[in-house]
Amino acid sequence: MTEQGNPPVYDTAAHANSFGPVAAQYQAARPSYPDALFDALERLAGRPLAGAEVLDVGAGTGIATRLLAGRGARVVAVEPSEGMAAVLRELSPDVPVVKAVGDELPFHDASVDLVTYAQAFHWTDPARSVPEALRVLRPGGSLAVWWNVKDVGVPWLAAQQERLAAALPTYDHHSGVDARPEKLTGPGLEVRSARLRWERTVPVEQVIDDLTSRSYFAVLEPERRAPVLAAERAALLAEFPDGQVTEPYRLDAFVLSKP
User: Fold this and answer.
1) Quick one: average pLDDT of 70-88?
2) Largest CA distance in the chain
3) What is the pTM of this model?
4) Residue 174: what pLDDT?
5) Domain coordinates of the chain in residue numbers?
6) Side-chain half-sphere of 180: how many Cα atoms within 13 Å?
7) How far apart are CA 115 and CA 86, in angstroms?
8) Angle at 234 between CA 233 and CA 236, to 5 degrees
9) Which of 148, 119, 155, 113 is nearest to 134 (CA)?
10) 97 Cβ partners below 8 Å, 6+ apart?
11) Alpha carbon of 253 to those of 25, 109, 194, 223: distances in Å?
12) Is 230 helix (H, G, I), strand (E, B) or coil?
C-alpha cells in the first residue's frame, strides 16, 4: 500500500523488463515441462512437432525452446531481453535468436507452422499478439500458449502465497497466471485446451532461486528483497526439514489453429 492507502501502481513495463538481471536464477531454478505437454500440443494442433517450423516467443533462457527442438521442431527463439537471450545463446548456440516481442513479430506472412508461448503470453497485448501470430502462421498452423501454475490448493503453497502477498507490493498481479482461453480470440476460431498435473522435488535453495527470478521479486531493490527471501527460506525449512520441497503444478495449455 502507498502512504495514502491506495494500492501501489503496477508498472507492467518494469516487470516485463526485469528478467535480464536474474537470467541465471531463471535458468537454474524455473520448472521445466513434462513430455506429456508436447504430446498434448501435437494432439491439439493436429500435427507432429517433428519437422515443424516454430517461433518460440518470449523464449527466455530457452527452457521450452530446447524441449521443442528435442521433439524435432526447427525452432527460432524470439526474446526481447538481452540478459535472457545471452543465456539461451550460451546453452543453445545452434538456435537462432531474434530480439522482438510477440506484439510485433519481424517475420513474413504465412512463414511458420507453430507459434508458442511458454510462460510468456501474459506479457503480450492479446489484441496485437494473436493477430500477429495468425499473420505469420501458415494455413493449418497453430498458436500454442501454456503455463505452469503452482497448485495453491496444497496447504503449504497456500501459506506461502499468503506470506508473499503480505510482503510484496505487486505479488497479486502475477501470483497465479490468468490463463483464460478467452484471451485467445479470432473470428470463427476454436480454442482447444488441455490440463496436466505434475510435480517436481527440488532443494529449498532452488525454490528460493525460482522466487528470485519472478518479476515481483526482480523489480525490488536487493535490500528489500533479501529479508523477504530469508523469511521464506526459514519458513520452507520449517515445513521441509530435510531441505527437499515437492512442488505440485497445474499445467494449462491452449491451442488456436488457423484455418
Assistant:
1) 97
2) 57
3) 0.90
4) 52
5) 12-149+176-200+249-257
6) 5
7) 22
8) 65
9) 113
10) 59, 76, 77, 78, 79, 85, 88, 89
11) 25, 25, 5, 37
12) helix
Residue-wise pLDDT for 64-73, tens only, equals 999 999 999 9
Tell me the average pLDDT across 88-114: 98
Distance (Å) of CA 61 to CA 36, 64, 151, 179, 229: 21, 9, 24, 22, 23
- Rounded distance between C-alpha atoms, residue 62 and residue 231, angstroms: 30
Cell numbers standing for residue 166? 503480505
C-alpha cell at 45: 494442433
pLDDT in tens, 123-137: 999 999 999 999 999
User: What is the CATH topology of the domain spanning 12-149+176-200+249-257?
Assistant: Rossmann fold (3.40.50)
Q: Please give the backbone phi and psi of residue 7, each rounded to the nearest 5 degrees, phi first.
A: -60, 150
**pLDDT of the residue at 190:** 85
The C-alpha atoms of residue 49 and residue 35 are separated, in whole angstroms, by 12
Question: What secondary structure letter does DSSP report for 7?
Answer: P
Q: Which three cell numbers stand for residue 165?
A: 502477498
For the segment 179-195, the average pLDDT, to the nearest whole number, is: 75
Please tell me the distance from the alpha carbon of residue 45 to that of residue 16, in angstroms, as a whole number: 28
Q: How far are the Cα atoms of 10, 85, 86, 104, 206 from residue 150, in angstroms, in the given order?
A: 22, 25, 27, 30, 15
Interval 3-50: pLDDT, tens: 444 555 556 666 666 787 889 999 999 999 999 999 999 999 999 999
Instruction: Show the DSSP H helices in the chain as ranges.
Output: 12-16, 23-29, 35-45, 63-70, 82-91, 126-136, 155-167, 171-174, 204-212, 215-218, 222-239
